[in-house]
Amino acid sequence: MPRTFDTTALRRPVGDPEVRAYRRQLAGRGTATWGSPVPTRRILAWVAVVVGLPVAGGQVAVNRFGAPFEGAAAVSVLIFLVGLVGGLVVLHASGTVGLEPWREQLRCREFAAANELECAARTDAANYPGIVFKAGYRRLTEQRIWSTSGPYFEVGLHRYESGHDQQEQQYEWRYLAFPLPGVLPYLMLNARLDETLPGDLGEFGAADRIQTLDGVMDEHFTLYCRPEDRFDAFYVFTPDVMALLIDHARDLDVEVAADWLFFYSRFRLQVSDPDTWARVAVLEEKVVPLISARSRSHRSRDVK
User: Fold this and answer.
1) What UniProt keywords apply to this chain's record, in alphabetical order (predicted)?
2) What is the pTM assigned to this prediction?
3) Which residue ranges of the chain lie beneath pLDDT 50?
């Protein structure tokens, strides 16, 4: 029987008082929330501006305009107060915005409980064989929701950083993971819709591993695999599988890594979006069984 998800909890209005009470409850346990990490660099930059500008302003008043010491001090104090008040106003204005990660977490915890799923706000990096889980450094996986009954799956958000010094960047990949019953050669389908975006999954693929899927399939996905695995790619991504992927996942990247099947997106597959769970149900019902059957029969061929 196809899995269905009750997304009522994801749709219900959640007021600020309820979110604050939930935040206090978890804060007492030391439980982390999810969302973007604290912007430490921005805070340090604001502190530097609040401290540095008054000093610089005072020096300019003395050196350029010949202001007396008392006048320079007044200018410095004025600049300091403006910077301090401006920062506090911004901080106060962002108070409601700061509740959003907690609001989302509250909804998702209720959703998980209603559907017999488990939920984790933040964990160590997920130990999956997928390519994004091995990339970069300072890896972190959060917003994880996974099944505890029936066929296993997991939806989450994986972060990592790459580059050095001024070129350092943080990347986020939302993912959907399904285990397979057998091991398959490494295969990757890069969605053509996202190929022009920075950090596109195709950046992981070597140019000499691009293979054609033939016909209309090449309009939607770019296939990456070793030349010697091209036959296996056609064995796994048969026309019926590709038709389903085009219908239900043409905006997602697809990866087969060992005995796992992954779907990735930079901006979709958000755990708090009811549409994500409709997609999970469709992929689990229509696509995963076909690729699972290919992995099972591929293992049988290898045994022979």
Assistant:
1) Membrane, Transmembrane, Transmembrane helix
2) 0.77
3) 36-42, 46, 50, 58, 61-62, 88-97, 303-304
